[in-house]
Amino acid sequence: MRAVETIVQTNAPGKVLPILTEELDDFETEATRFLAGGYEEEAVFQGYRLKQGVYGQRQPNVQMTRVKLPFGGVTPDQMDAFGELAERFAPLRKGHITTRQNFQFHHIPLARMPDGLRLLASVGLSTREACGNTVRNVTADPWAGVTDGELFDVTPYAGAFARFWLRNPLTQLLPRKFKVAFSADDADVAITGIHDLGFIPRVQDGVQGFKMVCGGGLAIMPREAIVVREFVSLDEYLKVSEAVIRIFNAADMLRKNRAMARIKVLIDRIGADRFLEMVDDELAQPWAQRDFSPERLLFLDNEEERAPARRDSYAQPGDDAAAFTQFVSANVKAQKQQGFSTVEIKITRGDLTPAQFHGIADIMREHCGGNARTTVQQNMVLRWVRDEGLYEVYSRLVELGLAEAGAGTVTDVVSCPGTDSCKLGITSSMGLNRAIQDRVTDLAVADPLVEKLHIKMSGCPNSCGQHHLGNIGFHGAAMKVDGHQLPAYHAFIGGGYEEGNGKVRVGTQLKLRLPAKRTPDAVQRWLDLYQREREDGEEFNAYFDRVGKVPFEQAVQDLTIPGDFSDDNREMFIDWTKFELYVLERGEGECAV
């Protein structure tokens, strides 16, 4: 019997993944043994450590922990625990939301990690299989359950999927990581098209189920997922998922090169038709005859029962009425439940301080019934806010420094941590994020077609910042001038995924490299080019399709020439937020361990 079947599931808020205290005790034992030199091969402990969600950094003797948040769901108590973790264990005193709805905490000494994991476990948070060659965090549309027009709420089924595969013997040593997403509707906010497995709600002849896609991904070989089933019922979506994962797990040819060991590579090599035949062949095997109903695994949490009751009176806007109106226009959406709205908090670079964690927790308790979720844009969505209470929520966010309008707009720049912590990082993508966001903010863009653009960047080609999907995207690179190295970026134009039907669009790489310190200038020139040359009402990607990449390359050609190394030009050879001359230092990443 699988271990997961012996664990009693609970539907208490935030308790999606079961915690095993013996795993935490084992981790402390093994970490202590490792620190004492008890492992002959470091790689053995590394694999164990990753399965517990503890990841190596480029800095020696410290670790990052990644906390799984299925469908991005988080409770006030968990936000308080994050605040305590950031305060007591993370030297930079912050936590970071990833583009897969997790929280990460960096620079934690391994000796202190067991206490940190126990703190998280005390509020129902698990790091188990957040890293390593496993089924990673199961993501979902943060507006699922409150979106007008959705066929049904995918949340219970995303929770069931996460529970089904946690500690599953089939997924403890896959060829590589496996990422899954559930969208609420065809807008595909969860971007199923770039995932190893994705689900979009369908109803066929009165039966609820999913359109199921497989084999998407970005990084060095961007691919859009293929359709595995136009319709699979709720009683069988776990079964078809197991067929896909069995095929992936058995693909030993992928294990020969971990850098290419993704299911998208398998599909690319054998062809979509052959892959679909293999799925059918698997489903004909004896294992597929057992019951795959998700009923016992469903995460059933009635958020509406906790929604705040209407009070007799609420605070009203005063001198800040204009700013509040702008905030509501940009960050607030009406729920399908009358009288309630969601509030998206724009979280700069996905980073929150201890005070902000605790402040959001208080807002959740007082104004949301405890309901909130993280987003793939590295933001947070407060759910079940009474319309009458929107100004009070806004006022509290002002106090926390989190009331900036424009969530999901051109100033809401997305990036991975880059060389701030990642072994694979080439450049300081977080530093570039800050520089570009400052530049775009200073431009005070009032053009609605420019405001809706997305800018994304990654510190290396692996696309943790999803740079392929930005209207403007970048990934880190290096240049060499006069024997000196210089931080630089490759540029991508015309990516996206919010085009009404959720179709993934991978940006086109320009034939140039930009010095890191000149990249904000390039962004400004491209925005100017678009505004100056577009046709009436023409959106950015449509303009790019019409004119091609040459005008974009020509607009920044002079910026690609860094100039000679000299005292006057020294800043060009120093990365954003750094103080020393740039030197490319890239270790072995642990994603493929």
Features:
alpha+beta; 17 helices; five-stranded antiparallel sheet; 593 residues
Question: Can you walk me through this structure?
Answer:
A five-stranded antiparallel β-sheet has the order 1-2-5-4-13. It has a five-stranded antiparallel β-sheet with strand order 3-14-15-12-11. Helix 13 (429-442) packs across helix 15. The chain starts with 20 loop residues before the first helix and ends in a 38-residue tail after the last helix. The chain is globular. Helix content is 30%, strand content 18%. It contains 17 helices and 20 strands. The chain is α+β, with helices and mostly antiparallel strands and 593 residues long. The protein has helices spanning 21-35, 42-51, 76-88, 113-121, 155-165, 237-250, 263-270, 272-283, 303-306, 321-331, 354-367, 390-400, 429-442, 448-451, 519-533, 540-547, 550-555, and strands at residues 54-56, 63-67, 73-74, 95-97, 103-108, 135-140, 178-182, 197-204, 207-214, 226-233, 332-334, 340-345, 351-352, 372-374, 380-386, 414-415, 455-458, 472-481, 484-493, 508-515.
Task: Give a topology summary.
Blueprint: H1 21-35, H2 42-51, E1 54-56, E2 63-67, E3 73-74, H3 76-88, E4 95-97, E5 103-108, H4 113-121, E6 135-140, H5 155-165, E7 178-182, E8 197-204, E9 207-214, E10 226-233, H6 237-250, H7 263-270, H8 272-283, H9 303-306, H10 321-331, E11 332-334, E12 340-345, E13 351-352, H11 354-367, E14 372-374, E15 380-386, H12 390-400, E16 414-415, H13 429-442, H14 448-451, E17 455-458, E18 472-481, E19 484-493, E20 508-515, H15 519-533, H16 540-547, H17 550-555
Helix pairs in contact: 1-2, 1-4, 3-11, 6-8, 7-8, 11-12, 13-15
